[in-house]
Design brief:
This protein is α/β, with parallel strands linked by helices and 256 residues long. It contains 9 helices and 9 strands. Helix content is 46%, strand content 23%. Strands 5-4-3-6-7-9-8 form a 7-stranded mixed beta sheet, with helices on both faces. The two termini are 26 Å apart. Methyltransferase required for the conversion of demethylmenaquinol (DMKH2) to menaquinol (MKH2) and the conversion of 2-polyprenyl-6-methoxy-1,4-benzoquinol (DDMQH2) to 2-polyprenyl-3-methyl-6-methoxy-1,4-benzoquinol (DMQH2).
Amino acid sequence: MNDQRKGSDAEPTTHFGYKNVPESQKAEKVAEVFHSVAAKYDLMNDLLSGGMHRLWKRFAIELSGVRTGNRVLDIAGGTGDLTRKFSNLVGPTGQVVLADINASMLKVGRDRLLDLGVSGNVEFVQADAEKLPFPDNHFDCVTIAFGLRNVTHKEDALRSMLRVLKPGGRLLVLEFSKPTNKLMSKAYDAYSFAFMPLMGKLVTNDSESYRYLAESIRMHPNQETLKSMMVEAGFDRVTYHNMTAGVVALHRGIKP
């Protein structure tokens, strides 16, 4: 977190993309972005990743170890890609909670899953990752896919996730990260800051939201930093896997 003070009584600031804003304003600004993109979020994911996001999520599911009867929390679950898969894995004796802080994203996810016939073992909860409204030691697995970078106090969110996991439970963080070679890094910069806003303008008439998303990726902790943050929060056996030359990384940690 970028915590800056102009005086002893000044409110701490944090980054919103490349801008510094008062901490109290970040959640509202992020909410505005996702209210704007919610209706076409799935379409834009497919266009901007060339469908690769489905492969990244599939790998996260394979590494989750989720099985019949488990209880899973899908934070920042958005339109429900992971929740739908987990619903099949846990079966009628398990439960999946799709949690999202953004009401528009939550509605899109609920409507989409209901249209697909996914309902019996899925619950939808509007929740803040920093203050999860669930009991201690409650879930076998917690996931957050492409959501942690939008959280103001990431350390608080990681500790909240640790609290709600059962001992031995797994946290999986799927997030954009730092490319592992210079050529990919340069290509990714050009793609992110030129193509992403352009596609946002053409498809959703909103280039600024996609410019923020590109900037938020650059401001997110890199692979090793996030690993250290998870260890500091209390997770054990923290590892990460780079995908697509580090464009995306999947971190996994275990609650002791």
